[in-house]
Amino acid sequence: MNKVRINACPLCGSTNINHFKNCTDFYASSESFDLGRCEQCGFIFTHEFPDEKEIGRYYETPDYISHTDTRKGFMNRIYHYVRSYMLSKKAQLVMKESHRRSGRILDIGTGTGYFANAMYLRGWQVEAVEKSPSARSFAKEHFNLDVKSEEALLDFPDASFDVITLWHVMEHLQNLQNTWERLSDLLSERGILVVAVPNCDSYDAKKYGEHWAAYDVPRHLWHFTPATMQQWGAKNGFILAARHPMPFDAFYVSMLSEKNKGNSMPFVRGLLTGTMAWFSSLAKKERSSSMIYIFRKKR
Length: 299
Hints:
Rossmann fold; 24% strand
């Protein structure tokens, strides 16, 4: 297998990298992957992972919900129920933070197209990009969305969009620095960049350790905290304008984490942990299982 090994921190360039955790791919392969942590800036990443040509097979399962829209299993049905509620909340957040009721929006890693469709129905000019051919086909069939392949990011003119969104996508991107640079080019001068990622400094991440479902190796390559996400923005000419917790994620992630541990009654146990995580994030939103970051360009 062809693999990519990180020998220098992608964020700060330091070679002072120590072992952080060993995590298992509970989802597809049962393989183990090491996480490294930069001692200079604190950025955590999957130390060695399959390259672009190889990693596709780790997504090739009918249970991968963002690509197949499966309702198989109790927890995936819960995911759909919560998503229908969160689509409205995300749309409201985008309009509030962008100070716009309509505009030009690019959704990167749109999956099966639910969010892109939600914004289209609200009158926005929508472009969407997705790597998975099956997910693009689903979006076309169900929403009549013309979702483009990821190569289209190079074709859009600079300053094309008032809003760019990546909902749980950035942790998957192999060319992370190149992506940040392209996002800066594509965003209009007064536009906003909306990035949602898991938070490996969260209450549930600390509770479950190597069994935390949102490490999701090797599909998740980068493991962000509020501090390192702010550093990534600053490195690429962005100012962090706001942070928002995603408290519902803790319930779903905790249920999956209980399943990873092989515990009985993962739904009940996960519900209890999710409730504790919810209260923890109310006291300090930086403990939320996932976070939404709103970036603006430096002027």
